Amino acid sequence: MSRSLKKGPYVDIKLLKKVQDKKPSSTPAIKTWARASQIAPEFVGFTFGVHNGQKHVDVLISEEMVGHRLGEFAATKKFTRHGGKMQKQLEQKKQQAEIAAAKAAKAAPAAPKKK
Fold it and tell me: Which domains does the chain have, with CATH numbers?
């Protein structure tokens, strides 16, 4: 455990003030840069705009998130994909198979409808 039990959880004081005496349903997204702040039980139901370095990502807080950090729910890196040349070949084969299946479906004569 990185933080000792006697210190308690780290919750940003400004966030607590913004949430205090407000209803979750009527409050718009609360923008914050405090990614290291832990999620307190008072935050449940609120939507936070957590900054990921480029923009604010909206995070709706639920009960399962209590105790986690806000930054865990706003990824800072964009995943493109794995693989290189081999991955491209596999994707091209898959795309060609889809095109062939679509052409075969178009070429097949439609069955006459029964009345």
Answer: 13-73 (3.30.860.10)
Instruction: Report the alpha-carbon distance of residue 99 to residue 95 in Å, rounded.
Output: 6
Is residue 51 within a helix (H) or strand (E), and if so which, with residue range? strand 47-51
Q: How confident is the model at residue 8 (pLDDT cuts 50, 70, 90)?
A: confident
| Identity of residue 98 | E
Question: Is the CB of residue 51 less than 8 Å from the CB of residue 33?
Answer: yes
pLDDT digits (tens, 9 = 90+) for 74-83: 999 988 777 7
Rounded CA separation 100/13 (Å):
60
Residue 38 β-bridge partners: 69
Pairs from 48-52 (Cβ < 8 Å, separation ≥ 24): 48/15, 50/74, 52/76
Quick check: 36 and 64 in contact, CB under 8 A? Answer: no
For residues 4, 6, 11, 14, the Cα torsion angle rounded to the nearest 10 degrees is -130
69, pLDDT greater than 80: yes
